[in-house]
Design brief:
Number of domains: 1
Oligomer: single chain
Largest sheet: 7 strands, parallel
Distance between the termini: 16 Å
Number of strands: 7
Strand order of the largest sheet: 3-2-4-1-5-6-7
Bound molecules: adenosine-5'-triphosphate, magnesium ion
Length: about 210
Amino acid sequence: MRSILVVNPKGGCGKTTIATNLATYYSVWDTSTALVDLDPQQSSMDWLRVRPDSENHIQGFNGLRGKIYPNEGTERVIYDAPARTDSAKVAKLIKLVDVVIIPVLPSAIDMRVAAAFVADMVTRVRANNAHAIIGVVANRAQKNYHSYKALLNFLKAMDVPFVGVLRNSQNYIKAADTGVGIFEMPYNEVDKDMQEWKPIIQWIEGKRILK
Ligand SMILES: Nc1ncnc2c1ncn2[C@@H]1O[C@H](COP(=O)(O)OP(=O)(O)OP(=O)(O)O)[C@@H](O)[C@H]1O
Ligand SMILES: [Mg+2]
């Protein structure tokens, strides 16, 4: 089993978008997947509730209700953290997870919050002798914008890998409304978005692409 935590204290940076879309990536490949919602708002679970029966099943858990019991044979577990999560709040989880994804919006305010948080997470992983890999995903990025270049400079200065860039795309809004992920939408509409996930998934999987 491989488990992935999506976390950043900044609200609205794309944690739920990344957690839910990643879950659909695995589910379309028939990988047994669980989505654990640690947010009192339960947005990931709301998304699962409107998920069409015709799509592959994703197990959903309210992670605030104590221990979770994924089905036997579950291959991927994805944790969606709430805003205002500091590294102390996820200290226990850090020891258990294999991958930590930190989505960052390319804005000065978001980058400042992320800088402190990334440094904190790196320290905490090391202090616990945990094995989790930590990476940053730039979300809603416009490559030709000044803010994107500032984000690249910010990441260069940090000691964490920059694993991918997701553009601002209406496909994520549609997917959120309808309980699907971009991997389940018509290819001709989402091919650009799907391409952007390739390096992210390769990194999550330790440079192995599933199947
Ligand atoms: N790449 C993107 N393109 C377009 N819209 C996006 C993208 N990423 C996220 N959004 C939209 O931005 C909003 C916030 O995203 P999301 O809910 O994933 O953030 P979050 O970090 O989970 O927020 P919270 O901290 O409140 O849990 C949502 O409406 C989502 O659909
Ligand atoms: Mg969320």
